[in-house]
Amino acid sequence: MSFLSEEKILKVLPVVFILFFLKSGVFALIWHNTSDDAFVPGDRDGDSIREHIIRGAGSFLKSHSFMQAFLEKIELAELECLDYNQLLLTLDDAIGKMLETKVRYRALTAEADITPYNQDVINQLLIFDYAGFQDNRSLNGDVFALVQSFLEQGDVRGVYHKTLVDVEEILLTLGVLRVDVAAGLFPDPADLWNANCSYSLSLLFGQYVTAVFMDIKE
User: Fold this and answer.
1) What sign does the dihedral 55-59-60-64 (CA atoms) show?
2) Rounded to the nearest 5°, which phi and psi values hold at 202?
3) What is the DSSP letter of 80?
4) Residue 48 and residue 36 in contact, taking contact as beta carbons nearer than 8 Å
5) Contacts of residue 191, Cβ cutoff 8 Å, sequence gap at least 6
6) Half-sphere exposure of 188 toward its Cβ, with a 13 Å CA cutoff?
7) How many CB atoms neighbour CB 92 within 10 A?
8) How do the pLDDT tens digits run along the chain, 218 residues long?
9) Residue 6, Cβ neighbours under 10 Å: how many?
10) Distance between CA atoms of residues 161 and 144, nearest Å
11) Domain range annotation of the chain
């Protein structure tokens, strides 16, 4: 299954970015963290924007972990007998955690939509040197361009809405895989690639958002 060899390469992306943040002396900042600085702190009851981001990131990363375990089982299928019941359980775990992410990001977008921006932070986003930031860190151009398209306009709410759409699309791709696995059929390689790439691109997008906000805080 040579098509998964590139998937294995994509697995190192989280590690690369964890090392980036550790080198900067920052911990536990992976997916959209610190972007809540763009909003005025709220005093309403219920979860804050920050908590929605943190818990949403936790469930996203857990879903991603289950997806990698699912792909590992697929990868080993050429050498070992594939247990479709176990495969389905792992996929259902990935789906369950992604559903939790969807709930969190629905709440996050709703909360962000009624929370005023912190104009000082927005102004920093408007004048941020995106080109220099990308060049200094050799970021993926396509993904960072998408991040820039939101942040250079101060549209942090748009970042969250875009991520919610990503989460819904990931759930659709996982649903396609589930139909085959539940029927005892080996998933189409193209569907496997699509699902894992969707995770990786969304993860990269969120990491770049965090990287920009961390740079502004320095």
Assistant:
1) positive
2) -65, -40
3) S
4) yes
5) 173, 176, 177, 180
6) 10
7) 16
8) 333 444 443 444 444 444 443 333 333 468 999 999 999 987 555 679 999 999 999 999 999 999 999 999 999 987 888 999 999 999 999 999 999 999 999 999 999 999 999 999 999 999 999 999 999 998 999 999 999 999 999 999 999 999 999 999 999 999 999 999 999 999 999 999 999 999 999 999 999 999 999 999 87
9) 11
10) 17
11) 2-21+47-217
pLDDT at 14: 43
Q: Bridge partners of 166?
A: none
φ/ψ of residue 39, rounded to 5: -120, 150
Neighbour tally for 50: CB within 10 Å: 17
Put residue 144 in one of left, alpha, beta given phi > 0 → left and psi -120 to 50 → alpha. alpha
DSSP 139: -
**Crossing angle of the two packed helices 84-113 and 49-75, in degrees rounded to 10:** 160
Joined together, the tokens standing for residue 73 give 């089982």
Round to whole Å and give the CA distance between 194 and 217.
Answer: 35
CB 112 within 8 A of CB 39: yes
Residues 6+ away with beta carbon under 8 Å from 22:
none
